[in-house]
Amino acid sequence: DQQVKQNSPSLSVQEGRISILNCDYTNSMFDYFLWYKKYPAEGPTFLISISSIKDKNEDGRFTVFLNKSAKHLSLHIVPSQPGDSAVYFCAASEQGNTPLVFGKGTRLSVIA
Amino acid sequence: KAGVTQTPRYLIKTRGQQVTLSCSPISGHRSVSWYQQTPGQGLQFLFEYFSETQRNKGNFPGRFSGRQFSNSRSEMNVSTLELGDSALYLCASSSGQGFNYGYTFGSGTRLTVV
């Protein structure tokens, strides 16, 4: 049973436009959520996180939104740049000290 | 400061063999976690070690095992390899138990079982 789901395997966006990556979760005990970015032949790198006490967190071009009632979070990238092309993983944890549970990833392609 | 180092980067093994992968965490980090990445399943948690003790274990068969040494370096071993074990194995280190201290991933070991 997949507790963290990224239902879109891939997404293509034009440079300068907004990229929206979505993630759903089923475990109501999850209270900390993270996004990682992964380039080929490299390990995932941390991008942004949000705890369940907030519904929005921003870091430069990246914003994560959390809708606890819908068990849904999204990552917005504005404006999208070609260097953002990568696989994005959503991850979740209970109380910040259990192993991260990852989604299967969404491959973002930003077209110049 | 040096990142997480995983060796080897690539490995080809025959079905039925065993393999040992190594992970050297960031200096000062005491927690090491292992994940398996496959195209169909994404990243799946294998196990976590903190101060030489296994603190968490994922849902993998007993053929997958690991250990951590006193210098925090970790190894994972897979015995009786199966074709389905072909994957990218990722190691992540953090300064404390759990990711709240910040997970840093290595570049992974790409294992191919033929």
Question: How would you describe what is shown here?
Answer:
The complex is a heterodimer of chains A (112) and B (114). Chain A has 112 residues and is an all-beta fold. Chain A is 0% helix and 54% strand. Chain A has no helices and 11 strands. In chain A, strands 2, 4, 5, 9, 10 and 11 form a 6-stranded mixed beta sheet that branches. In chain A, strands 1-3-8-7-6 form a 5-stranded antiparallel beta sheet, with no helix packed on it. In chain A, a hairpin with a 4-residue loop joins strand 7 and strand 8. Chain A is globular and about 40 Å long. The mean pLDDT of chain A is 93. Chain B is an all-beta fold and 114 residues long. Helix content of chain B is 0%, strand content 53%. In chain B, a hairpin with a 3-residue loop joins strand 4 and strand 5. Chain B starts with a strand and ends with a strand. In chain B, 37% of the residues are buried. Chains A and B meet through strand 4, strand 9 and strand 10 of A and strand 5 and strand 10 of B.
